[in-house]
Amino acid sequence: MAAVAAHTPSAVPVTVESAAPISATPVSESASQRPPSMHQAVNTVGDSHDAKPQLTIKTQAPLDDQHYQLPPFSLLPEPIKDNSSEMKAWVEQQRVVLNETLKAFNVQATVSRWSIGPAVTQFEVSLARGVKVSKITNLSDDLKLALAAKDIRIEAPIPGKSTVGIEIPNLKSRPVMLSEVVESAKFQESKSPLTVALGVDLFGQPMITNVAKMPHGLIAGATGSGKSVFINSLLLSILFKAKPSEVKLLLIDPKAVELAPYNGLPHLLSPVISDPKAAAAALKWAVDEMENRYHKLAAAGVRNLEQFNAKATAHKDFGLKMPYIVIIIDELADLMMIASSEVQDYIVRITQKARAAGIHLLVATQRPSVDVITGTIKNNIPTRIAFMVSSQIDSRTIIDQSGAERLLGRGDMLYLGNGQSQPIRIQGTYAESEIDPIVDFVKQQLPPHYLFEPEGLLEKVEATENQDELFPEVLAYIADEAQVSTSKLQRVFSIGYNRAANLIDTLEQRKLISPASGSKPRDVYFTPEDLAQYQESKHMN
């Protein structure tokens, strides 16, 4: 377990010292004439920081998982099959009703084909020449009444086709078991350790994605819509694909319930974090790790993590290889209530820059309101996954269009991938009883390899705030100021230069003021609204 100096505040920059490579090239007398090796170049950058105090978290020796075995598919329940004869009769009945209803409203259109999915059947309607698409969309409520359906969704037109799609809930929905997707050829043939199972589409085809290509995701839906089950499926998918040395997980679960079964996994960077302040500190650690990785990429002359690891392998510096890091936040709203400005800043920095460093963020919330999913956060997260929501407004907040309010719940989702203009409707995989057997199988092979403990991060945050009794007063003062300087704090609070300089350093480290620019005063980023939130959080604790 990582050893962290107890007196060091967590707000200071965090660096990770890489363990020595398994195979390092000995230095000869002519070594100075040769280009630096991967190990030498990375260490040179790692030692080039300024003289400010640093919180150093040392990794243990490279994790030996050569004999690690991925979980067998036999731990998964078998897929569930449909009653095909019953479904065929129901589909034929719905086709007849649709045609008769369209004819009754004088719409020249007929059902031309259909696709049966696990929970929804999509009927493709061909329109006669000159018939407006709006004639179909305007009949949404009338069609729902005629079909006696819980809800219907109209896709007008279906992308790439000259037909309109009418999606109707099946007579009986079929749960999509995780085994149905992970045992598919698509999943097994994918080489990426970040391959995850999404579910099954309207055509019954298994759907997967690569987290590295997302590269960050927003998951939102009302209570009971299947959001937490989807996160479980995502985590289990990674366990089926990745060794602990290939992917590291940072799990943040303010509810302290949903992700608790994963505690003790060797893939974890820390135990599952439930305290919002510790979560904010963990996100800051991720930002600092991202910057540290960029230093290493620049020193090695590469542009991303894949190239870095390939170069390390070519030089036989296996100990320098860096794992992907996947950060999952199960309920963003709880974090935004406690430390919205800090959390938003860290999320934005990660989503803007962390892709090349191999760090990926997945954020989930059941409150897709603009005060939780701010425009700044949403604009930097290209992949959106919408489960059932209560209103069109919530749907537009997530995927920039309506439709999620008409989903059925229980894993029914709209998946808007990176670069896609239209979402795909997918029935998400169901995973519950298989969580414990798979997690136990992994835990029995290797112990956890934590870099830090949430309590340690939290202590550092509190130590930073408590290191000077004037800190709350300084925050109250700068909230109404446009600029601040060391000399100004000296005059206002009648303190010495050293104490004022330490307070300025702390404010800068917490990103409440701008960095130094010669002898100019610092710009203040801390607003009266931030002060009110800070004082409220202190009062709550």
From TrEMBL:
How this chain assembles, per its entry, is: Homohexamer. Forms a ring that surrounds DNA.
Q: Which family does it belong to?
A: Belongs to the FtsK/SpoIIIE/SftA family.
Q: Which organism is it from?
A: Loigolactobacillus coryniformis subsp. coryniformis CECT 5711
Q: Where is the composition biased (Polar residues)?
A: 25-46
Residue positions annotated to bind ATP are: G221, A222, T223, G224, S225, G226, K227, S228
GO biological process per UniProt? cell division
Q: Which GO terms describe its molecular function?
A: ATP binding; DNA binding
Which PROSITE patterns does the record cross-reference, listed alphabetically? Answer: FTSK
Record keyword Iron present = no
Can you name this protein? DNA translocase FtsK
Which Pfam families does this one have? FtsK_alpha, FtsK_gamma, FtsK_SpoIIIE
> Where is the segment annotated Disordered?
1-51
What the entry lists under InterPro entries is as follows: AAA+_ATPase, FtsK/SpoIIIE/SftA, FtsK_alpha, FtsK_dom, Ftsk_gamma, P-loop_NTPase, WH-like_DNA-bd_sf, WH_DNA-bd_sf
